[in-house]
Specification:
With 207 residues, the protein is of the alpha+beta class. The protein has 9 helices and 4 strands. Pfam families: GYF_2.
Length: 207
């Protein structure tokens, strides 16, 4: 069996080397980045705001506007098709390149420098905390590191949990002001009424 020749491949694609082998290293990485940017541009995204409430769906252009206006940042949790869980924005491959286009960078520079500087954001956050409208004041780097450590310890101990299902992110019917049972009952009644009307019209035509 070892001396026998193997049959030729049945497809032309079997004769080609994978791109990771046939392409130069830099060209291959550029190709992968372009593919990631294409997937990101066509995907639909959800993100969790500063209160933990999921927002979305939104396109890449909406994400760019939110990023430029400071609504989301590199630490904001995002979810999209192909992701198994909520992950920080900085961990989504290709997203940084999509958000660092010249237009978005220029708008973000104007917002951070003139419209709403970081100093004003911290003061606004602290004022909301003093009024009881925010759960925590503005954190500096050390405070954020301490919070992250407490958060990790709480997750390990099982005192807190992360959202693993996007179905939990969907707003409840009560929050939307809809009654699911009544909504479907109304649809069923309308459909039955429509069918009854159609049967009556057919009976009149036959008569």
């Amino acid at each position: 069996m070892a001396d026998e020749e193997l049959p030729p491949p049945s497809r032309n694609g079997d004769l080609r080397l994978p791109r990771s082998v046939s392409m130069q290293k830099d060209d291959y990485y550029n190709y992968v980045e372009l593919m990631c940017e294409d997937v990101i541009r066509k995907n639909v995204w959800f993100y969790r705001d500063r209160t933990g409430l999921p927002r979305g769906p939104c396109t890449l252009n909406t994400v760019r506007k939110c990023y430029a206006n400071g609504i989301v940042d590199q630490h904001t949790l995002f979810w999209g098709n192909g992701l198994g869980d909520w992950v920080p924005l900085r961990n989504i491959r290709g997203m940084s390149a999509s958000l660092n286009d010249p237009k978005t960078k220029f708008v973000k520079f104007l917002v951070d420098t003139f419209a709403f500087p970081k100093k004003d954001r911290r003061e606004n956050r602290n004022a909301l905390y003093d009024e009881g409208l925010a759960q925590s004041p503005s954190y500096n780097r050390d405070d954020a590191a301490k919070w992250r450590k407490r958060r990790e310890e709480a997750l390990v101990a099982g005192e807190e949990s992360t959202m693993l299902s996007l179905s939990l992110a969907a707003p409840r019917a009560e929050r939307l002001g809809l009654k699911v049972k009544g909504f479907f009952a109304e649809r069923i009644a309308n459909r039955a009424k429509k069918n009854a009307t159609g049967e009556e019209e057919q009976g009149v035509r036959r008569a």
